[in-house]
Amino acid sequence: MGDELGFDEFYAASFRRLVGQLYAMTGSLADSEDAVQEAYARAWQRWDKVREYGAPEAWIRTVAYRIAVSAGRKAKNRLLAHGRHGEGRGFSPGLSPDHLALMSALRRISADQRRVIVLHYLVGLSVDEIADETASPAGTVKAWLSRGRKAMAPYVSEFADTAPGTLQTKTILRTEAGEE
């Protein structure tokens, strides 16, 4: 399908169908729309490759499903973590002082550093997985992680007081992602 049509035509022909399929898989229309839209954005960035796949719609569906599952898992884990700490009632997820400090610190570093910090600590990807996802050499990913931690150190004490890669360094980021 993607070989004969340009991206706009492909999008128009398949968007609603994919949202419907993902909605059936996830049970959330809003999350399905967001995930499918993000998958199309990713496909657009590499449309020359994606349109050559035998089934570009399957690629989009797979990417969208992974996005939705990841987002749902993080939200569920975050709510469970807040509930375990007695913050379940009347608490808005993401508005803790630690979270606000973390978000502020992330905004102060470069986009590349921010992306790899999030992928490594919040998503839990390895350096090699981040290198694959960002199409960057592993050494570059390591440099971005190191520089990002160093740049965040004045704003997030866990980065200032702990050697990179230790459990304490990861605690604030994983906790904010809803993991324990």
From TrEMBL:
Gene3D superfamilies listed in its UniProt record: 1.10.1740.10, Winged helix-like DNA-binding domain superfamily/Winged helix DNA-binding domain
Occurrences of domain RNA polymerase sigma-70 region (ranges): 13-76
Q: Is the Cytoplasm keyword given for this protein?
A: no
Q: Does the keyword DNA-binding apply?
A: yes
What protein name applies here? Answer: SigE family RNA polymerase sigma factor
- Similarity comment: Belongs to the sigma-70 factor family. ECF subfamily.
Its taxonomic placement starts with: Bacteria, Bacillati, Actinomycetota, Actinomycetes, Catenulisporales
Q: Which GO terms describe its molecular function?
A: DNA binding; sigma factor activity
Q: Which organism is it from?
A: Actinocrinis puniceicyclus
**RNA polymerase sigma factor 70 region 4 type domain segment(s):** 100-152
